[in-house]
Amino acid sequence: TVIVLSLLINYIFARHILGPIQKLATEADRLGSLKPSSNEISALKKSVHGLIESEEQTHQELERNRETMMLSEKMALLGKLGAGTAHSIRNPLTSVKMRLFSLNRSCDFNKHQKEDFQVISSEINQINQIVENFLEFARPPKLKMKKMSPSNVVDSALHLLEERLKSYHVTTRLIRHHPLSQTLVDPAQLKEVIVNIIVNACEAMDKGGMIIIHEEENHADPQKKVAVIRIIDDGTGISQEDQGEVFNPFFTTKDEGTGLGLSIAFNIINEHGGWLDVSSEEGCGASFAIILPIKDS
Predict the structure, then answer these.
(1) CA-CA distance, 288 to 297, in Å (whole number)?
(2) For residue 180, which of 40, 169, 186, 227 is within the disulfide window of CB 3.0 to 4.6 Å?
(3) pTM of whole model > 0.70?
(4) Are 86 and 131 in contact (CB under 8 A)?
(5) Per-residue pLDDT reduced to its tens digit, 45-92
(6) 162: Cβ–Cβ under 8 A, 6 or more apart, which residues?
(7) Quick one: DSSP state of residue 297?
(8) For the domain with range 146-293, which CATH number is right: 3.40.1280.10, 3.40.50.300, 3.30.565.10, 2.60.260.20?
(9) pLDDT (tens digit, 9 = 90+) per residue, 229-273?
């Protein structure tokens, strides 16, 4: 229903709003070419073209909202299916873990048996982590909003990752002309998103490299001011085909992993009223942009 409604709005906008405005612009241009230029005609042309620019921005916003709604609807459906599956697995998995714990305490294993036991325990923990990821994905994030600068969250994430970045042989460069304006964010959830994207970037750089975190404020449209946190790596990049898939649940190019990290990140930023963007060229690194609305309350 949401998808059909958004398509209908786009159609009405293009046919009944943008079309007539573009026709008006053409007529204004023609009027300017037929008669000697005057301040009034110049002002008219400027106003009409300004109107077109404003309406095109609105159309882009509608298109972005349509894509967000489609992905959100898909995620909601997959989340319900994933939650049901996860709950079905969780109970017998808990029983297996308890049996193993009891077995480990009551039996005297030889060296090879201990190694086998460790492998089994490790695999069970891996399954358990996958189940937890499923459940986290299925649960809509409950945000605990605080008014603060997102720059503080960036600093906190970088401090948390300090040792991990060293282990990946990755250096960071923070470009911040001034701290981002205060807005309403959930610092814990936003930090999870930033950490997730930075760790993904580290894993995309096999031999280390540099990650640039660039902060800026911009306007999504004349009335909507946004904070942008751009995380840029110099890794292997993402193919054009995969860029359309990276926020989809269970999509991954890694040998290990559930493919839920960026989907969860997408959900968190979506709940903030913002969106995630990705741009990349294969072999030339990737850039992820976290875009958050700047709200007073």
Answers:
(1) 27
(2) 227
(3) no
(4) yes
(5) 555 555 555 555 555 555 665 565 555 565 555 556 555 666 566 666
(6) none
(7) -
(8) 3.30.565.10
(9) 999 999 888 888 888 788 777 667 666 666 678 888 988 998 899
